[in-house]
Design a protein that fits this description.
Elements (H helix, E strand, L loop, with lengths): L1 H10 L20 H31 L2 H19 L6 H9 L2 H15 L7 H18 L4 H24 L5 H20 L24 E4 L2 E4 H19 L1 H11 L1 H6 L4 H27 L10 H11 L11 H20 L4 H26 L1
Helix pairs in contact: 3-14, 5-9, 5-10, 5-12, 5-13, 5-14, 6-7, 6-8, 6-12, 7-8, 7-12, 9-10, 13-14, 13-15
Amino acid sequence: MVSSFFWLSRLTPSSDVNCDGQPPESKVPMSIDETRSQSTMVDSSLDQPMEAPKKKRIMNVVVQPEFITVILLILAFIGGSIISPYFLDLDFLLNYTSLFIEVGIMALGMTFIIISANIDLSVASTLALVGAVAGVLFFDLSMPMGITIVLAFLLSAALGSFNGLLITRMKLPALAVTLATLALYRGAAQVLVGDDSRPKLAWSRDIVFPDWFVGIHRVYIPGTSIPLPLVLFVILAIVLGILLHKTTFGRWVYAIGTNEEAARYAGVPTQRVKLAIFTMMGLLSGLAGLIMVSRLSVARYDHARGWELDVITAVVLGGTDIYGGRGTIFGTVAAFLLIIFLRTGMGVANVKAESQLAVIGTLLIVAILVSNLTKRIRT
């Protein structure tokens, strides 16, 4: 039986032969053209997976807020050059940028604040209060200018720390705290100097800040000269960029902004980090206040009124997520320059200050919308 079955199985057509005794169609040898066509299909299928990641990488770059900001910056420069030939003058751009350098300095600190999912609305009021105190110390109390500057920086740190302590120790929301200190610090500045200034307009022309402190001093390089405040801004941008992007402290700031509770469980000293960045914000605002007093040669309570909007716009327009967890110093610097170019163009076109403020406000709304849109595209 077994042997019979064995011989019958040998007589059964194999799977390699059909009922007509011919090999199946899939086994028929292909022609040369068919072989080439099949090879081309295989090659194209191999290329597709390689092209897809490349296209994805390009799309990821294009939808980055920083990339969009740089494109807008280039367009603003081109548009400004068409409106006025001054845009092509390097000295004009350097001088005009130095007129708003206080915004850029405060925006650097605000980048840390917003990345950590916080906000500081008191920056411009801190600027005004520090400037007013410096004026009172020097003119009313006859303090030496060097000691006045040291005390002004100590006050700046104290004002920033006050915000930070209310937020970290009292567990109060940053928006409410800094909205209150916005009014508190501005009111204190007005109480100190009143509606007048330091030096007072009625005083003798001999009663002024020392020569080494006032005016926009310049750093001379071959072919041109750069305003000293602009040089200081560049140095701060580099130092704070390294601090944010290359240090453990910077990673802690990102972690807090992404998920503060998870960061705390991971061992991040969240309260100390937040206190540190608010103190740093106070110091940078105080520095901006001293620069403004130096540039204008006068201290007033209404200095930088409304500049909170410019500062926050520069940060958000530069790609920092208003909800925290993302942002770069490079983006903030690019957005700051964009705002300067826009203000310069509007100034050359005789656009009123109120209209310029409306444009900046609109720009902030657009920046938030674009940030949300690009976030959805990336995810």
